Predict the 3D structure of the following.
Amino acid sequence: MINGKGSAARRFRLLMILLSAGISFWWGCFIGWNLSRGPMDFQAVYYGSRTLLLHHNPYSVTDVERTYHAEDALSQSPTPRQFQNMTLYVNTPGTLLFVAPLALLPLRVGQVLWMILSVGGLCLAAFLIWDMAALEGALVAGCLVCFMLLNCQVLFGGGNTAALVIGLCTIAAWCFIEGRFVPAGIVFMAISLLVKPHDSGLIWMYFLIAGGAYRRRALQSAALTAALALAAMLWIWVVAPTWLNDWQSNLAAISGPGGINDPRPVALTAASANNVVSLQAVFSIFTGNPWVYNLASYLVCGSLLCVLIFTTIRTTITRNKILIALAALAPLTTLITYHRVHDTKLLLITIPACAMLWATRGRIGWTALLLTSAAIFVNADIPLAVIGGLTDKLHIATSALTGPVLTVLIARPGQELLLATAVFYLWIYTKRSMETEVVPVVSERN
């Protein structure tokens, strides 16, 4: 039933995707809509854009607070930490432009439309990924796709932009690889770069260095992104000339000691660092110096990225190699700089490569399946909540080296598995670069 590319198989895949996403959506709504005024992450971008529409500075906490309080107050009030998350605006100027049409609407209407776009985009991306892997490993791909969608409660409950960005980025990658609906892929990649460049940036970069038609599509996406970003920045500059300094101050405040994005163990008491999946959260266990743990993260991830770039420049690009390269870049994206657990849904892009390698069986196939499944499982919402509940009660002495090491192994398994997955697929990519494959003709079928 789930093998092959027939219409019956596609209908079955669509049904399973909608069922899995529907369960997460219902659960997420039960969580998010019981909070003050609904999903918190969406409120942050909604009130930021609404502040700009009212000709005030969206990067000014005072101006955003004024906009928030101008709305009809509901019975339930946010906690101080939730209120900071909504009023300390740190998203890109392009996000303001993209969300502005929804900010013209009442909050509840905007939330409903945002959820439709986010859930719909992620479901379409999941369907395309499963369909792409159907001939080589439909069962494996289906299990991984459905498991990921079953663990989107936090993502859907908060209304975070990651759902839409990851969905659009994945759809764009499918369009570029398959040579279908390319103009739509260019627009989708541009929007994902506009809203969350740190989620889709490395995926876009790969198509840029891959050359040929892929480079042309990447450049077209970048041009559209630059045009929209410039329009957004000019709009903000007219309204608030000091916005850039305010944005930098907000970023420093949210990532500083005690901020909601602080990756250090001291933030564990606020249930913040448990959700940070970048390598900074690992290295910060050994040192609290931001300069040191940031540098260590950049050195590790940067070295892997350089190997991938060098290999790409020297190899002949084929479809299989693209899938493997993207499978290495997806976990690397979440490790190289600040990301939260909901950004690991980008691992959706690793599934076609995993299915392709699994079809060969052997040690490589089993390793691909085990690493990819483990990385997806440990960073999924439900398992992560269980791990967090267990590790929050642990008190490991940090006076000796064994203490931080045990903390990393017990409280930070997600980062190690993401790194192992990235290294594995990078190794396969460099190995395949030595092989000769028939170069496919990239067409643009609409």
Q: What stands out?
A: The chain is about 70% helix and 0% strand. The chain has two domains: 1-255, 266-437. Residues 266-437 form one domain.
